[in-house]
Amino acid sequence: MDETSQKIIDATMSLIRDKGYVATTTKDIARLAGVNECTLFRKFKNKKDIVLQGVTQEKWRANVTSDIFENVQWELKPDLEMFMNAYMDRITPDFVNLSIGLRAPQLYDETAPLIMKVPQTFVAFLTEYFQRMEEMGKIGHFDFESLVMTIFSSTFGYTFLSASFNRNLVKTSREEFIKYSVKIFVDGILGM
Amino acid sequence: MDETSQKIIDATMSLIRDKGYVATTTKDIARLAGVNECTLFRKFKNKKDIVLQGVTQEKWRANVTSDIFENVQWELKPDLEMFMNAYMDRITPDFVNLSIGLRAPQLYDETAPLIMKVPQTFVAFLTEYFQRMEEMGKIGHFDFESLVMTIFSSTFGYTFLSASFNRNLVKTSREEFIKYSVKIFVDGILGM
DNA sequence: CTTGTATGCGAGTGCTTGCATGCATATAAA
DNA sequence: TTTATATGCATGCAAGCACTCGCATACAAG
User: Fold this and answer.
1) Cβ atoms within 10 A of the Cβ of A100, count?
2) Which of A9, A134, B43, B112 would suit a FRET pair with A48, their CA atoms being 20 to 30 Å apart?
3) pLDDT tens per residue, chain B (192 residues)?
4) Taking Cα atoms as reference points, which of A182, A36, A157, A124 lies closest to residue B84?
5) Is the CB of B24 under 7 A from strand D?
């Protein structure tokens, strides 16, 4: 990937994050990338092609693979904290807004699988984790799907709300949130 | 509001929910509403004006006022279940997608306060609820902000994930989710 | 019957869009 | 030095955009 193409991709993805795909014009992209508009079409087939190449780059996707969960201690509290930190390290506000910006009908068929892979990876990890924890006798039997959905929804929800309504709605810091919510998940409200 | 204007508003809001504001053209709106395109501009100042009138209609906003929490029993489990049900009754997938469709820079300054009012109302209710519960001696002392954020994030997260990735990611039904997550909030994972 | 109002219709406004082309220039490899 | 490649720049194009105009038609109230 030559430098000019990269600048074009970076400009495109930034604009989509800020304004959405449809509202992002090739003129905008060229201006932000500091190149002439026609250079876009020398390097890429069309506007959509820029985006589709962008979403395949590590730089523009949360780098989510299963090996991010390496430090499992098989201890509920530190493991859930590690899980939430792993999520929030990768799913930054920029990434959240980019994901929303990519939700355009013209793109969605091709980008949706990529966007969906992120939550799926986290949900799959959590599900496996709890199954193993039960096998090890460290927790009782659960409806794992509901348990996982509760914890993941909460992690996802906080991340999304922070990115969308920063400080207007969310007054709790990330560290506080992780500490307290894990405590609640582990001990419940009455048992604290 | 005459019938024609209402049809135009309904068509506009539906299209924004499905494609977003920028991708929705006045030609689309006219076709879906079954009126001539120029009728839009006889009834409304411009495209933006249609949306701004739409978002003020009860029909097109979650009808969230504080009196939706009337059935408080001051009992953790039924109250949290009531809270989550109240949220999910109102924040339907359609409403979630409409909220995202309204996130266009051309609109956001004017629509954001309306969109934000919904989570704020729920967060405010929960905060007050837990404060009263502590005063009544029914729960111990908490960092209420973190507690509220955990529960609301989870409710919001499940609602959003269901609307966005239906059944591909979310296998848990609403009823199951509410039942189990409230159980976890109340008892914790270890105490079940 | 007259008049006002709501709407349809076709055409067209000025502007912007994604995209293309021809040509000049810069740079770097041969 | 020659040659190939990358890029800038001006210009252009067909299509699509939000929005407007003049005029015809329907219908209901007076």
Assistant:
1) 20
2) B112
3) 899 999 999 999 999 999 999 999 999 999 999 999 999 999 999 999 999 999 999 999 888 887 778 789 999 999 999 999 999 999 999 999 999 999 999 999 899 998 899 999 999 999 999 999 999 999 888 888 999 999 999 999 999 999 998 888 989 999 999 999 999 999 877 665
4) A157
5) yes
Cβ separation B105–A18 shorter than 8 A: yes
CB contact at 8 A, A141 and A114? no
Q: Which two tokens stand for residue B91?
A: 């924040």
pTM, two decimals, is: 0.92
Protein-covered nucleotides on strand C (Cβ within 7 A): 6-11, 16-22
A115-153 exposure pattern, b = at least 16 Cβ within 10 A, e = fewer:
beebbebbbebbbebbeebeeeeebeebebbbbbbbbbb
- Chain B residues inside the 8 Å CB shell of A24: none
Task: Tell me the two tokens of residue A176.
Answer: 């506080």
Q: How far apart are CA A37 and CA A54, in angstroms?
A: 18
Q: Which two tokens stand for residue B112?
A: 């954001």
**Residue A81 burial (CB < 10 Å; 0-12/13-18/19+)?**
middle
